[in-house]
Amino acid sequence: MRRGHALACHGLDHGLLTDKGLDQFADETQRARAMIEAAAGQRITGYRASCFTMERDKLDVLRQMGFTYDSSKIRFVQHPLYRNLDLTGFQQADDLVYVREGFAEYEIPTLEIGGYSVPISGGGYLRLFPFWLLHILLGLYARRHENFTIYVHPFELTDLPLPLPKGLGRATRFRCLVGRRGNLKKLRRVIRWLKKRGARFLTLEADRRERGLS
Ligand SMILES: [Zn+2]
Predict the structure, then answer these.
(1) How far is the CA of 11 from the centre of ligand 1 (A)?
(2) How much distance in Å is there from the Cα of 17 to the middle of ligand 1?
(3) Distance 51 CA to ligand 1 centre (A)
(4) At what angle are helices 56-64 and 22-40 packed, to 10 degrees?
(5) Which of 2, 61, 71, 193 is least enclosed by beta carbons within 10 angstroms?
(6) Confidence of residue 167 (pLDDT cuts 50, 70, 90)
(7) Alpha-carbon dihedral 110, 113, 120, 28, rounded to 10 degrees
(8) Are the C-beta atoms of 162 and 177 separated by less than 8 Å?
(9) Do residues 141 and 134 lie in contact, with contact meaning Cβ atoms separated by under 8 Å?
């Protein structure tokens, strides 16, 4: 926290929210939040759904539970898991930012190319794309957008052996493991590129505060 980071919740078991009922979601979220709060000694008010599988009724549960922001919306129509989260009743406050009654939803950046929306700022895409390609895509993105977020799991920044469950399919293993070696270096290059363009870095919590939502 002293270095300008913020903690938020990414669920209890990284299961897809689309496989969970509302009660299960509320119960697991409460347990996950309590664990992080006990470990960190601070209140947790942000959420990101595993694999961006947030649904509108679960977003409303988060709001009722006292969460103040979520970042699970992604425009990624061609992916079988990702939904385009329904934000009826929210106002778009800024590029990638939607607000309703003090609650903020931060969209994951994607780049529209030939009818596809390509995520360029995290996950397997960040790991898979070489820097020269990312550089081109980021340049295109920056022409059309004001805001940007980067998302990584800690395991994506190391090449330590992963304790993957047995019986995982080859495609899933590939998705988990591809491009981890060198990803930290690539992320540093992306951050340097953003800094050179004058980007300002801040947490989503700080962004909320700046918008007067706290
Ligand atoms: Zn995740």
Answers:
(1) 9
(2) 12
(3) 6
(4) 50
(5) 2
(6) confident
(7) 40
(8) yes
(9) no
pLDDT of residue 175: 74
State the distance from the centre of ligand 1 to the C-alpha of 160, rounded, in angstroms: 18
What one-character-per-residue DSSP string does 107-152 give?
EEPEEEETTEEEE-SBHHHHHHS-HHHHHHHHHHHHHH-S----B-
Q: Is the pLDDT of residue 26 over 70?
A: yes
pLDDT in tens, 67-96: 999 999 998 767 665 567 899 999 999 999
If you measure from the C-alpha of residue 48 to the centroid of ligand 1, how many angstroms do you get, rounded to a whole number? Answer: 8
pLDDT of residue 77: 65
Report CA-CA distances (Å) from 200 to 78, 92, 196, 203: 31, 21, 10, 10
Q: Identify the residue whose tokens are 């998705």.
A: 175
Cα angle for residues 182, 188, 194 (degrees, 5° grid): 140
Which residues are close to ligand 1, an ion, with C-beta < 5 A?
50
Query: What DSSP character marks residue 101?
Result: T
